[in-house]
Amino acid sequence: MNDxxxxxxxLRSRRLSTIITAASVAVATxxxxxxxxLRTASFxxxxxxxxxxxxxxxxxxxxxxxxxxxVFYANAPSNPISWSKFxxxxxxxxxxxxxxxQQGDSFRGFPxxxxxxxxxxxxxxxxxxxxxxxxxxxPSKLFEVCLGxxxxxxxxxxxxxxxxxxxxxxxxxxxxxxxxxxxxxxxILQPSGSAHDRAVFTDLESSWxxxxxxxxxxxxxxxxxxxxxxxxxxxxxxxxxxRLPTRPGRDASAAIQQQFDALRRDTAIVVAQPAxxxxxxxxxxxxxxxxxxxxxxxxxLSSGISILLSMHNSMAERRKQIALLRALGVARVRITGMIxxxxxxxxxxxxxxGCALSLIGNAVASGALKARIGLVVDPTLDPRxxxxxxxxxxxxxxxxxxxxxxxxxxxxxxxxxxxxx
Amino acid sequence: MNHAVELANVHFDYxxxxxxxxxxxxxxxxxxxxxxxxxxxxxxxxxxxxxxxLRARSGSISVAGERMDGVSESAADRIRxxxxxxxxxxxxxxxxxSAQDNVALALMAAGEPEKTHASRSRELLNKLGIERVHxxxxxxxxxxxxxxxxxRAIVCKPTIVLADEPTASLDEVNASQAMDLIQQACREAxxxxxxxxxxxxxxxxxxxxxxxxxxxxxxxxxxxxxxxA
Lengths: 421, 229
Description:
The complex is a heterodimer. Chain A is α+β, with helices and mostly antiparallel strands. In chain A, 55% of the residues lie in helices and 13% in strands.
């Protein structure tokens, strides 16, 4: 028999109350941990989309808009960049790679990105995770597309099937479909956990031909356009992904800022460092994020209050037990310690239960979120956050035990040992 | 030192309503005495003073040669755990604990080595006729609970057992058996016994009867404060 066994027996004797109280701590802990996981996941998802790009050039109105449109497909960029400007930029610095992109069309509401071949061979949507195919191959000929994983999952389309792209976002009832140029699906991409999973990819020339055809139709030419018919007016892009050379194993380079500043002098374009813009976005939506964390803390505090109430209510029933222990010679301080240990154990059990709950929840949610919206949530718990939250829950629980412990400390012995007490 | 308990010039009061003054009261080691008196006469108060659960206003109280007055509460706790066994009218067992655990509580409080708790408790309970030592005491009969309470009181081999109305809730036959048990257990443990009872029939069992009324110097109302029972 020792103090801990008395505490455990006492908790067992109030099994239902103990379980409910510990469960409230578990739910609060899990809620906080899951919120932190989702917060981390959401920002990582943003970062994942930017991949290995150092700089993004577009003709959008601001760097943030450029990133939202060029990386996250928020809208089709409205202003084009000429092919000659692209060549000028490409040849103006010994970049590691340069990927021209063009947006403007869609398929069943999913954005279509026409990209240079380096998009699949050099650009990585997530650093260290190059593109992989679930099926088929990357587009290599005219009028071929590969589908992002979400597009494939949502439409049920497979390699070999043909699709027709829509001019613009397709939101209008009268949206024009490029029926004269069906595209063959040649590949399905593996999920990347980024916005690219919601896009359809093709090559630049196919996209230019679609728009050359429109130009020719307006001019009354009925013959289908070919590569040979493309003019400089047709060869337009909406974005350029750039990566500067870095040392092996490094992602940053001092030249990034220099080149960023150099490109910014050109007022015809907008240059963005995607990582910086993501941080900016993070600071904009950070307040909402803090609100969720505050809610989680409030839930944790309320669970602390429930421990206090549960233990405080039990003190009325336990006066005789405490008086008896005192009569047997157990010191007041020791009994106070037992009550605090009880509260701490409830908090500990709740916090551990919360970790388990969060792990299970994250595991279930990560699969569902990745499959449904392409958001990658790491089902493991961040060690630092977990330690802080678990320690916080335990300390809070111990604090909740202070008032009942004081009540125990002050319990009069003689009065509570009387037969009528 | 042959005294289990020594009281000298002890004064205690509950304000103006009640006061207890004892010039001298000694109990020898192994001696068995009955504190007799009516309801509210101060029998329990005397026991709680000896046990250090109530503090005297003045005077000295020693148990097994160790002063209970003037020492810190924790020191009094240690003396109580080591030298005093307590038996209550309603047993005051912890119902969710087994018989063995209830007895082991006293050993824990006395600081006895933990590894001996189970064996010592079990052996004593078996000796007192309790075989189902792992059963929660709530599932035992009243008679068996009484035995567990006695076992808890003597398991640390105390210098003195203080029994507060141990038979008050029992009929004549059961009260007699309970007292037999307590007295025999104390005898075998070598403990003195100071038993408070309002039952005059108990007097024949004790070689010494202490009339608590002789210590009460003022008592306007004996029924208002239950702690004086």
